[in-house]
Design brief:
With 151 residues, the chain is mainly beta. It has a single domain (3-123), classed as Metal Binding Protein, Guanine Nucleotide Exchange Factor, Chain A (Beta Complex), CATH 2.170.150. It is built from three helices and ten strands. The chain has helices spanning 34-40, 105-108, 147-150; strands at residues 8-11, 18-21, 27-31, 45-51, 55-59, 64-68, 74-78, 87-88, 94-98, 114-117. The strands form three sheets. The protein has a five-stranded mixed sheet. A hairpin with a 6-residue loop joins strand 1 and strand 2 (18-21). The radius of gyration is 17 Å and the shape is globular. The termini are far apart.
Length: 151
């Protein structure tokens, strides 16, 4: 499979594991369940869902490790960098790709519906109307971002 045919491509953090899908994404789901929060280390897991029939690994398959998250679901990760990897299960006709792995996600997912699932489990501490900044907040940067906490 050539990536020229791909609707979507992606990779892990160290570029070892790469993949593509020749089928368009079906939906972008933001999952608030406690398992996704823990596995992804975030307030919710954002997952791009694609048909398994179009999904292929392009490189790094020997560096994919997994653990059994439940009797039915394995969680996959790159053994080099630790990035969470797509959920590909034999019984499931769909693949769940962590959004952060997708190359040029805005283009690849243009027009795709987005949804929040397991929203009843969402963390109260994640404030939807919190201030938003294009980069660092005014007066802060990577070197002094916690200066006000030290003063």
């Amino acid at each position: 499979m050539h990536t020229d045919d791909a609707m979507l491509t992606g990779r892990c953090g160290c570029h070892t594991v790469t993949f593509c899908s020749t089928k368009a994404a079906i939906v972008l789901s933001h999952c608030h369940c406690s398992e996704c929060r823990r596995v992804y280390g975030t307030a919710f897991g954002s997952i791009v869902v694609v048909p398994r029939s179009g999904f292929r690994y392009l490189s790094g398959e020997l560096e994919i490790a997994c653990f059994a998250a439940s009797p039915r679901v394995n969680r996959y990760f790159c053994r080099v960098c630790g990035s969470s990897l797509p959920l590909v299960e034999e019984w499931d006709p769909l693949v769940g790709i962590p959004l952060g792995l997708v190359n040029d996600a805005d283009r690849a997912l243009e027009g795709i519906k987005s949804q929040h699932i397991f929203a009843a489990d969402a963390l109260d501490c994640v404030v939807q109307d919190a201030p938003r900044f294009a980069a660092w907040p005014p007066g802060q940067d990577g070197n002094n971002r916690a200066q006000h906490l030290r003063d």
